[in-house]
Amino acid sequence: MSLNAFRLSLLFCLLVVFSEISAQKPLNPIVDKGPKSKIELIKADSLIGTSGLNSLRTFYGHVRFFHRGVFLNCQKAIHNTGSNNLVAYGNILINQGDTLTITGDTLFYDGDTRIARIQGRKVILTDDDITLVSKKMNYDLNTDVAYYPIPGVINQDSVVLSSNKGYYNTTTKLFNYIGNVEILHPDFVLCTDTLDYDSNTKRADFNSYTTITSADGTLSANEGYYFTDSKKSKFFGRSFMENAEYTLTADTLDFDLEIEEGFGIGHVEFFSKADSLLLNGDYGEKLSSKGFTKISGNTLMRSVSDGDTLFLSAEYIIAYNSIDSVIQKPIDSLFVDTTKNTIDLSKTDTASNVQLEIIVPDSALLINKLPGDSLSAKPKDKNKIEFIIANGNVKIYRDDFQSICDSLNYNLIDSSIVFLGNPMIWSTDNQLEGDTIEVHMVNNKIKTMFLRQNSFVIAQDSAFNFNQIKGRGIVAAFDSLTNIQTVHVDGNGESIYFAMDDANKLIGLNRVECSRMVLNFLNRKVKRISFMGSPESRLIPPNEIGSNQIKLDDFSWEIEKKPTKKQVVGSYFADDIVEMELTPN
Questions:
Q1: Taken in order 564, 566, 569, 571, is the CA torsion positive or negative?
Q2: Whole-number Å distance between alpha carbons of 456 and 131
């Protein structure tokens, strides 16, 4: 083949390839809503024209064009009839239909692509109750989409929205905002980086870090949606809500700021600021109309008071803002007053080194006490949580006491806790049991403990002996170091205590049975016993003490059940949560 023939063949192939490429559709073809047509002049005050295929005509005065349902108005226009476009200046006004208008200073309009580019000191698009203002705007009449590539401001009703750039579909009423997006609403301020907004439904969707601030609080998340009229929201990813009273954090957060109701799913954390109280769990819900917050699934409560943290785990925890929201059944407690109606018939028992006192029975010695009564009542604070219910495999750890039970009620007003369902409490070297146990605290320390029905107190002394007290009802009082000071027994009282001398040497084992009795402790030793009625008491010398005499019926030292801090916190939480400061994430 000759060189010229080769060149012709190569040129032919290139022409074929080029024609095939030219025939392919573009990736994003312009969607035209009708057949192409020429821009039509309606009127003008004067005309300067040229002839030729690409003739230019310049119009002055009240210039008006029409093209495919759109009117284009200006003071000066250069119309290129060959390329079917025009450049217009001065008082630009575009009318589409009955509602859409765009005004500006200059306009370039392509009649074939139907794209209008408007610029000016202030370009304004008005569509019903929506106004979009920028200095530069492109409007595609095929898709009815306006695009502003530089900062713009949108007004609708009383809402003002601004962004670096954005899109507005005049048909669907959908906005796409990009860069430094801010919504100024009379009730809130929304800030984000990208936002899709439906002006029909008032729904704002975002997929970048977003904050919503109002008088009701602040919401923040990386993804979700928010209704600007109803203030309902749903956030995905780590989401955070805060107001003056509390914070709520979760992996998914569905919340209504206006009524303060919603729920969180996944690593939920609720922090009550006034109470220094933190709740964690898998699921949480805040219902202000019912006055409570409920946390469930791997639930942990941490409450700090005077630097001491109470850790509580349960299947679920309910925190009530007002005790009036809780339907309570009164729980009677025993309180024994031994300061009156006593006859001093005491004598010193040299064998036991314990002072015995006979007390004349009197019905006035027992008074009923309801949970609403207070030993250390505090003034009400409307921002504070007043009552907590924990249910299901409840465990408590605090430095001065530990506990297990099926459920409990915690009255934060008078610092009282009622343990229900096989409760057991350990305090220093003491183990306390009863069908129901009620604890009252003063200055954040256990002051009094009421044990009702099948009550049993085991106090291990410094020689590791187990002093034991049983009765129908028991009231135990504690000192500032949470050591037992006195134990009041009412009904079917029995006790075993090991009498020790000052050198901590065993003197004997004292067994006492009496319907009512009071035991006083000093330095973890029984120092005094007071009886009401006719006690049966005997001292067993050390060499006569048998293994069957050192335990009362139903004695069970279950120290292995005493929960540790790590057991209460649980494997669900990170190891360092035990030592962390009580601060929300």
A1: negative
A2: 77
- Angle, vertex CA 541, rays to CA 537 and CA 543, nearest 5: 145
Distance of alpha carbon 202 from its chain centroid, rounded? 25
**275-296 b/e (C-beta count within 10 Å ≥ 16 → b):** bebbbbbbbbbbeeeebbbbbb
* CA dihedral for 371, 376, 382, 383, sign (positive or negative): negative
Instruction: Say how far apart CA 168 and CA 502 lie, in whole Å.
Output: 91
With cut-offs at 50, 70 and 90, classify the pLDDT of residue 187. confident
Name the pLDDT band for 323 (thresholds 50, 70, 90): confident
pTM of the model: 0.71
| Domains of the chain, start order | 31-150 (2.60.450.10), 323-555 (2.60.450.10)
- Position 229 scores a pLDDT of 84
CA-based torsion, 167, 168, 174, 177: positive or negative: positive
Three state DSSP letters for 186-206: CCEEEEEEEEEEECCCCEEEE
Please give the Cα distance from 40 to 252 (Å, whole number): 56
Q: CA-CA distance, 2 to 25, in Å (whole number)? A: 37
**Does 357 score more than 50 pLDDT?**
no
Question: Considering only CA atoms, which of 358, 334, 314, 316 is closest in space to residue 533?
Answer: 358
- Model confidence over 199-234: pLDDT tens digits? 889 899 999 999 999 888 888 999 999 888 888 888
Q: Which of 361, 419, 408, 364 is nearest to 535 (CA)?
A: 361
Q: Strands, E, within 370-500: which ranges? A: 387-398, 401-411, 416-420, 424-427, 430-433, 436-442, 445-460, 466-478, 484-500
Judge whether residue 417 has pLDDT over 80: yes
Structure tokens, 8: 């012709």
Chain segment 231-267, per-residue pLDDT in tens: 888 898 899 989 888 889 999 998 887 788 889 999 9
Distance CA 178, CA 163 (A): 6
Share of the chain above pLDDT 70, in %: 80
Pick the closest to residue 168 from 204, 206, 137 (CA basis).
Answer: 137
